[in-house]
Each structure stands twice: as structure tokens, then as C-alpha cells.
Amino acid sequence: MGGVRADPGHGSAGWDGGDFARLVEEARLARRVGGPRRIAEPGALLAEVVGGLFGARADAEGGRFELAPWLPEGWRTMALRRLRLHRTVLDVEVRPRAEWATVRLAVSFGPPIALALSLRNTGPVARVMLDEIELAGPRAIFTAQGEHEARFFFGGEAR
Questions:
Q1: Which domain holds residue 150?
Q2: Domain containing residue 79: CATH number
Q3: What is the mean pLDDT of the chain?
């Protein structure tokens, strides 16, 4: 596949644990032993991964792109390669840990993009570091070009 695309729309606004469970079950059914089950609507499944699990949205506040990954409990890593945001292609890797989560981004093609990056399904975010610079607030808003590493430190109760 050439890549996936972030579309305008509600993105991750109404996405929750039930949506995550349905997404995982659909993927499991397609991989069962005894012959591959065809996914009825592959485009819809990819839209759930991009817009739901990774929270990618092409028309966020201020004309920015938005990424707000959902952190599934027990997952050590998740990645989305070749996410297309208009003319820009972006790789995303998320590594949650007990006290923080690291999000690595790499623009592999196209112009820089304005991006708002946050996390969902976590406790309160105490601080955010972007490329070793501390930012104010629970999200990182920046222009993505080249490679970036954001680290979200959780404060208060555990996620």
C-alpha cells in the first residue's frame, strides 16, 4: 500500500474503548487460523486506525493537523507509516510507558506542516518535552519538518 491519509472530520472526538475493542476484534477475525477472512470494508478499517486509534485529523483548530493517539492498555508500541497530510508524508511511532509516553515523528516527504500533538486515554499530563525543550500545557503545537521526539510525562494518578 502506498500510505494512508488523514481526512477532515470529527477524528478522535467520540472515539472510546468500545471503538478500540471493535477495531481489534475486526483485525483478529481477519487473521484467524483456517483461512483469511476478507475485511468487508478495508477503507473503513483504515479510517478507524488513522482517525480513531491515531486520532489523525486534517482540519483541526487554526488550520493545523492534529494527532491524538489513543494509548491501548498493555501495548508497548504502535506505529503508522506513510500517513499523508495533504502533500506531506509522516511516520508516527508511539511508545507508552508507566510514567510517560514517547511519540516519534518523521516527515519523509513534502513541506513542513503545522501540527497539534496530544494523547488520549491517559491520566493528566504533567509536562511535555519536544526535542528536549519543555513546553507549556498538555499538548505540543509546532511545525513538523524532519524528525521530532515528543515525551509526555504523566502526573497525578496513573493512566
A1: 4-154
A2: 2.60.420.10
A3: 82
